[in-house]
Amino acid sequence: MSSPAPSAVVPPLGILPLARTAVDRGSDRRVAPDLFEQIRENPGTRVMYMAGGKALISDTEVVLAPVAEAGFGDGPVYLGRILADAQEPAGTDVVLVTLAEEDPLLETDGARWAALREVAVLLGELDAALFVQAAAVSNWHAVHTHCPRCGAPTVPEQGGWVRRCTEDGSQHFPRTDPAIIVAVTDPDDRILLGSAAAWKGNRYSTLAGFVEPGESLEGAVIREIAEESGLVVHSPQYLGSQPWPFPCSLMLGFTARTEDPAAAVHDGVEISDVRWFTRDELRDAVGSGEITIASGISIARNLIERWYGGPIAEPETGAGV
Q1: CA 274 – CA 183 distance, rounded (Å)
Q2: How many other C-beta atoms can be found within 10 angstroms of the C-beta atom of residue 157?
Q3: Is the Cβ–Cβ distance between 168 and 175 less than 8 Å?
Q4: Across 138-164, average pLDDT
Q5: Please, are residues 19 and 122 in contact by the beta-carbon 8 Å criterion?
Q6: pLDDT at res. 15
Q7: Residues whose CB falls within 8 Å of the CB of residue 206, separated by 6 or more in sequence, listed in order
Q8: 247: cis peptide before it, omega within 30°?
């Protein structure tokens, strides 16, 4: 059956920039062996090009081009049918074509190649949904060219959403790695932010980590916060989620609370510093440029601003990504 329409139930964090849905992914259509032959003959079918993690962008829209005379080339991926959009009719089929390198011949009418991080906050609902989906599945194809069981080459099937081993016939599906990200608060309603050792500059954000095998989301919240900050937290509450296709994560946003804020200490490995902030302290630190915080496309920024009570103003130079 076709993908269901988006739910009317909105999570506490709202609809996040990379979590918008405007495409019927058409899982029922993917199984047709002649899918691409069918939709190639339709003059309304559109192609989204990607190369090196970048897509063609025109102004604030993803370029959806007509099918080239040569067709879709190797390894196309069926992204689905547009549900509703001002630029393209509802029901338009969209196919992802990943190129080995950027093709300057496609850069017509001011179109340019851009990465998702660069343009995500500028994109509308359809364009953001397509770009996130395309980036995630393109990343998966790039690194799953061989069977993890026997090492033989794999080939794409079912509209590009399955890879089959050419030797043992096993099927392999796109992976998604769940990760929790947490706004930790204390009895004075301060928020804990950390600076990762790998980050440049004085950048701070909410703490996060991957869910381990056999672990619940709540268990991951408690374990990760203890590992990275030394804090014992309780009462984890889920607020919302957002795909993070860099390369294949799903970020699951939580709040949690600690009763012993003085115990906070960075782990010295992944986290180089942790700090408590009141709302006034965070506003002043960001406004003065003393620190930067996560950008608007991230769930971290939404968690921080939900705690803060609204947007946080920053210097002209902007926030960290």
Answers
A1: 13
A2: 14
A3: no
A4: 96
A5: no
A6: 85
A7: 181, 182, 183, 184, 191, 192, 193, 194, 294, 300, 303, 304
A8: yes
pTM: 0.89
What are the two backbone dihedrals, phi and then psi, of residue 113, each rounded to the nearest 5 degrees? -85, 130
Residue 268 to residue 273: CA distance in whole angstroms: 8
Q: Hey, is 21 helix, strand or coil?
A: coil
Dihedral angle computed from the Cα positions of residues 297, 298, 303 and 307, in that order, rounded to the nearest 10 degrees: -50
Q: Is 132 helix (H, G, I), strand (E, B) or coil?
A: helix
How far apart (Å, rounded) are the C-alpha atoms in residues 37 and 140?
24
Work out the mean pLDDT of the chain and round it to a whole number: 92
Reduced to 3 states (helix: H, G, I; strand: E, B; else coil), residue 192 is strand
CA angle 217, 24, 29 (to 5 degrees): 110
Give the residue among 122, 118, 126 at the shortest CA–CA distance from 46. 126
Which tokens go with 94?
């969209």
Q: Pairing between strand 271-277 and 191-196?
A: antiparallel
Q: Over 90: is that where the pLDDT of 309 sits?
A: yes
Q: Is the pLDDT of residue 140 over 90?
A: yes
Please answer whether residues 78 and 93 qualify as being in contact, where contact means their C-beta atoms are separated by less than 8 angstroms.
yes
Name the pLDDT band for 86 (thresholds 50, 70, 90). low
**Would you say 144 and 154 are in contact if contact means Cβ atoms under 8 Å apart?**
yes
Distance CA 182, CA 192 (A): 9
Bridge pairing between strands 54-58 and 77-82: unpaired
Tell me the residue type at 290: E
CA angle 149, 152, 155 (to 5 degrees): 105
- 258 alpha-carbon distance from chain centroid: 29
Highest mean pLDDT among 20-29, 105-114, 246-255: 246-255
What string of DSSP letters covers 294-307? --TTSHHHHHHHHH
